[in-house]
Design goal:
Elements lengths: L6 E10 L6 E11 L2 H19 L27 H9 L2 H12 L4 E7 L2 E9 L23 H21 L12
Antiparallel strand pairs: 1-2, 1-4, 3-4
Helix pairs in contact: 1-2, 1-3
């Protein structure tokens, strides 16, 4: 357990923009919890949700009749299969134990899967939070957005830098680099 605070999870997708020579990065989901096991469980649940949306079973009730067809002729196994990788990771008790062990040691965790559609990053890292909230200034306007706490901002910046360097190391050579950042 992280004695200094909670855990922050983030799932991002990065892929080519249709008709342009650039890529886009979007945040698919975010989650914060003071509990490590809840955060790890949320990440695994979201991995299955994304896999089921990328590669749904034809009998799913939300899929219109005859909307899906096999793509084996157009997608080779060498290009990878993100839904399969996400399902294997989320359904593996050993992988989930490894996530918990890595976070208990204080290190951030990132699972990266890539295929012809893009790059998917599931990340989880410990964050530092104050034990008691600061007393608000009596003259401060209530309509202002609260600012990101410096400790959380620093940890998030470091974790994002680690995750981006991991993404760069697994990006296929023919995959274009990101032109914008978040």
């Amino acid at each position: 357990m992280n004695p200094t605070g909670g855990y922050w999870a983030e799932i991002t997708a990065e892929g080519p923009v249709h008709g342009r020579d650039e890529t886009a990065r979007i945040v698919l989901a975010e989650f914060e919890s003071p509990h490590l096991h809840a955060s790890a469980h949320w990440l695994a649940t979201q991995a299955l949700r994304i896999a089921n949306r990328l590669d749904p079973h034809p009998a799913e009730p939300w899929v219109p009749a005859a909307a899906l067809r096999p793509v084996t002729a157009t997608v080779s196994e060498a290009e990878g299969d993100v839904p399969t990788l996400l399902r294997q990771w989320a359904n593996s008790p050993g992988e989930q134990r490894a996530v918990v062990a890595q976070l208990e040691s204080g290190d951030p965790f990132a699972f990266i899967a890539a295929d012809h559609t893009g790059l998917y990053v599931l990340a989880l890292w410990p964050v530092s939070t104050p034990r008691t909230p600061p007393t608000p200034h009596p003259r401060r306007a209530r309509h202002r957005k609260p600012r990101l706490r410096p400790a959380l901002h620093t940890l998030r910046t470091r974790a994002v830098a680690v995750i981006r360097s991991l993404c760069e190391s697994v990006r296929p050579p023919e995959y274009p680099a990101t032109h914008g950042s978040r």
